[in-house]
Amino acid sequence: MEVVCPIDTQFAHQISFLLEPPSPLQVQEYFDELITSKQCDGIQVKPTNNYGKGVYADMDFEEGGLVLKDQMLVGMQHSSNKIDCLVCGCCFCFIGSTEIQIGRKLFLQGLGSPKDVCFNEKLESLMHEKLELPYSKKFPLPGVINCPGGCKEVYYCSKSCAQTDWDFCHSLLCTGEGSSNKALSKFIQHANETNDIFLLAAKAISCTILKYRKLKAACDNETDKEKNHLSDLLGDHSFGLLLKAWNPLLMGYKRRWWDCVALPDDVDVSDEDSFRMQIRLLAFESLELLKAAILDEECLPLFSLEIYGHLIGMFELNNLDLVVASPVEDYFLYINDLPEAEKKEIDEITQPFLDALGEDYSACCQGTAFFPLQSCMNHSCCPNAKAFKRDEDRDGQATIIACKPIKKGEEVTISYIDEDLELEERQALLADYGFICKCPRCVNGEV
What we know:
four-stranded mixed sheet, alpha+beta, zinc ion binding, Znf_MYND, SET_dom_sf, 12 strands, SET domain-containing protein, Beta-clip-like, methyltransferase activity
């Protein structure tokens, strides 16, 4: 089935500008400003000889030293993980209380026993924080703040996070009262049933629309001198503002999703064309549902299949796993380390809940996110840095740690794959990223 998106033809000129790789000067100016605003001392983003841009040390880092804490541009918790963990929809820290985390998970997973009335009553008490577990106060969590729009899809750790997320993208994606609830629900359901990376693409498009509206409102109150050079060049002031709103996403390396997604092991090479056409069709189905929910006539180029496909491809190639450790694990480990006499008494209260949770008691928050600075880090099969959460890293920021000493001026590299694999396996996996690794280990043919 041929997939045709009229917006691709109607706005081909504008789409080409949105997808054109930024110039070295644009890259330098954007990342210099970003590093300054985020106070990410110790690194620089600069052009490289082989891979467009890279991250370089602006100071010496010792092994185990913190190289970067990078705040995500867009991120999300996997839909399937929302049963396991209640986290802030903005910063992804755990919220509520140890009691809420345990009670909610057991309730949603139906792990209570219909025959055990006493346990079920305790479970309900946990859910409503009427039962306090011993020592749970040693593991305090921020309270639960509802979405400003009243939806039940997302919760927050503070009014500040709620407002930030609302202003950033959620005001367009909220399924609360007064929204295009039915259309949004269809889009979300489709994403949950197929690939929840569509939800991340929707966030990216929504944040661009909202940023465009703010820029337009500000310019409506200014004189024509505020029109930028590209606006004059294109003869379209509104598109110049849209391009400016798109700027953070412009900086990410992109390929069409259906071109760059790895061929699954169960798909024969002879069926590759058919597989990639199916992926393209899946993206088109998702896009049509998103258009029905949040289409903005002034931002039509954002709803082209080319833009949607490149956005998802950018996430496919550049995203980092979003992982936040569970305080529930900390709680039960603390109970387990109590003196034996005290532990025996407390186990009578806590052990039934631990038994009901089973081996999955320590489930962490899991998701995916695009981090603007981390995504600039190039691959090496002998990297000098890695993504690694320390005990104190309890939110969704990316934490990059030096795994060997890094000298000032040296490029900071990470591994996109399992670097312990043999050469042929590494090269095969890296082919999906569109490059041949030229790190010392690969050049020398080391396994």
